[in-house]
Each structure stands twice: as structure tokens, then as C-alpha cells.
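Moderator note: this is an archived Q&A kept for reference. The question asked for a predicted structure of one protein chain; the sequence and the answer are reproduced below.
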Amino acid sequence: MDLLYRSTRGSGQPVKASQAILKGLSEDGGLFVPDQIPALDKSMDELAKMSYQETAYEVMKLFLTDFTEEELKECITKAYDSKFDTEVIAPLAEADGAYYLELFHGATIAFKDMALSILPHLLTTSARKNQVENEIVILTATSGDTGKAALAGFADVEGTRIIVFYPKNGVSPIQEKQMVTQKGDNTYVVGIHGNFDDAQTGVKKLFADKELEGEMAQKGFQFSSANSINIGRLVPQIVYYVYAYARLYAEGKVAKDEPVNVVVPTGNFGNILAAFYAKNMGLPIAKLICASNDNKVLYDFFQTGEYDKNREFVLTTSPSMDILISSNLERLIYRIAGNDAEKNAGFMAELNGDGKYSITDDMKAQLADFYGNYATETETAEKIKELYEKTGYVIDTHTAVAAVVYDKYKAANGDGNTTVIASTASPYKFTRSVMNAIDSKYDSYTDFELVDELSRISGTEVPKAIEEIRTAPVLHDHICEKDEMKDVVKKFLGI
């Protein structure tokens, strides 16, 4: 029996996995969710012997049931190859009593590579399965990392084009340089005057624009998404939590069925939602610790049960989390509302209208597995310095937010469970913030002097992704206002 996917807002027929991946977003604006979360069908003893690629197959086959074994294995083989600088794909580093799950060993040195290296293959396979003849236009908003990872994944992939919108002054210099130097005849990168939420809202409007959809269809195009709203992004993210636990078990770091905590620095909620799905598949995860920066809309939500985006948008040194509308939270809201699409749609309408909604006490009671807290800019910088001076291990700003929140959780609860911290980006992606945290003397260094100094003090090689952009020419210098996004898309597509 195929596992079917439904919209969190209810209208429309259930679809197969390949159709959900192709669409990206449901026609009613909802997100696709599986009818049920399947249970792992391999024992931990079996999983402990598997490579990352083998683990990926065992997890993903349960969700993507209309893919053949051959199709799925081919996608996995193409994705998790020499683009990653380590054969284990997602290594664990032990530092100061926690295990850092390094999700930044892919082509663009951020965790988005873990899913975006496979999404193009899932998408093109889905198109073939559904006899799609249109060219697929990937439309994406980014707070810094998704954009480059999606561009790298889709560059020169036949039958696709990709358009990325990013906040012009809301990403790190390295993140911007990575995007604007992207090669590929099918790539288009645009900075908007606005923040990430403006970019994301604009993209959602374009997806819902029926007139534009008709014009595109006439010219042989159709939209899909590489954002974490696409179920083809979420499913591959479940894999690395299963793999991390299996590695801990294989190495004798946890006993059989011993629970672990997972800490995730969270903006759009997709990465921690993947951990929640892994837990519901049977992985022994105790607490899901949701770490926010000064844009602490999720922390406030877990405290009060009210989601309220009506607040100042703060630009921080962890820009990939500078988000006030956490799109993937909708998948969790739908679930704790008893899979009641009408109820969920009501909450989303309130969010769209008043900028806030409050869940019921019954729903809030179902969030007991979650703990939320946040880290200030000062706490984040202090954590980077403290961990480096104590252990020599250097983490980026987003990972530091998670480490601070983990400290707060331990202090509040005295929980001694083995803990995995999702390390979502390489420190090389945020060298200025990281190096300034370690020592203020680095403030006078240029961006690439900082890169070389980070390599020296951490004893790590400069990643290929950084070496490539030292001298790379800028290929994309497009900038627009947030209300001009539709015109930009039409111009790029020649409509």
C-alpha cells in the first residue's frame, strides 16, 4: 500500500509521495503531510552496521512508497557521494559532554546539503513517474543557506530552472558570495529589499497566483519548491537522526533503547520536525530541545501556546534563524490538532490576518516532548569562545545558539541523558562572527584572512566551498523590491 500525503489545510485529494514532491505546496496553501508516520522496520542492531547511504534507503523507502527500490537507491547514490568531504557523510564530534552531529560536510558547508543534494534527483524522478513534460521552475526564498544548497543541487540539472530570493542585507558576506558566484545557465539569484519573511511570503504568493500559473503553463513551465515546505526536503532530514543514534549505539556510547536528547537550532522548524518524525518512527529520543536566537517566536510559543509574529525582526549573527514565520510548524500544529485540517486552516488564517494564533490547552499538552529556549547575541559569542578555550573545538553561531540552550535546559532540569546537538553550519560560513567571539583582535582582518586564521587555530582544512569563492566572479547582481518579485520571475522565464 502506498503511503499517501494530504494537505494540512484539507482541500484536494490525497496524493502519492512523488506528486507531493512535484507540487511542493498544496493548491490550498497547505503543506503535505503523510497519512501516518511509519515505524522503522529494521532493528537497531541492523541499523548499527549500515552506511549513511544504506540508512537513508531504510528510512526513505518507508515514506516514498511509490518509488521503486532501484529509483530510490539511484537518487541516494547520486546525492551522497564525493560532494561530501567525509565518507561517513554526517560525523559525530564529542566536545564538552555533548555529541555534535556535523551536518556541514556537503558542497555548501551547511545542513541544507543533507536534503538538497538529493531533492533534485527525487524531483526529476518524480517528474518522469508522473509524465511531466513542463520544465520545472524551482522557486525558493532563503535566509542564507537553503539558497546556495539549492543552487548547487539544481545547477545545470536538465529540465529545471531555479530562482532564489534572499534578503539583500540579511545574510553573511560568505553566504552572499556563495550565492552570487553560482554558475549554471539555469540559475537566477535575486536580493530583495526586505527580510527573509518578506521573501518567503512573496514566494508563497507566487505559488498561489493562478493567473501566473496559467501563463507559465502556456510557456511550458510549472513551479516546485526547494524550501523545507517540500516533503522531499523533510524526509531526507529524518535520516541523519536515525544514523546518529545508530552510530552512538554501534560505538557503545548508548545502550540499546537508551533515550537521547536532541538539540536543534531552529528557524523554519523543519530540522527539529524531522527529529520529531524520527521519534515517532520509534527512535529513542526523549526531549526535543528547540533553540532560538533573539527572534524567539518559537520559544514564546512553547512557553505560552500563542504564536505571535507581531514583533521587531532582529538581525543576528545567526541569520539562518532570523525568521518570524516558521513554516514547518504548521505540520506540527496540524498533528496536535488531531489531523484536523479545518482547525489548522483556521489558525493559519489568523496568522495571515492578525499575525498570531493561540492553540488550545489540549494541543499544548501534546507538546510535552518539546523544550524551547533562546540565546542572546552575547551568550552565543561567549559560548563559541568558552568551547574553543576549553576543548579547541570551534562551532558556528547557529550551533552555539543550540549549545547555550542545551546548557539552560540542563540547568533547569538536571537531565543527564546523552545529548546530540545538530551542528547546522561550518564555522567557515560565519568566520567574522565566530572569530570576533574568540578574540576581538580579529575585527581588523579581511574575510579571507579570517578564513586562514580559523584554519590555523582549529587545525582544520579550509573547505573547498570557501576556497572556490576566494576569486570567483560575481555572476548575479539582481536586486528588487519585495513587490517586484512576480515581474522578476516573468522576466527570467521570458513570459
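Archived answer notes: The mean pLDDT is 95.
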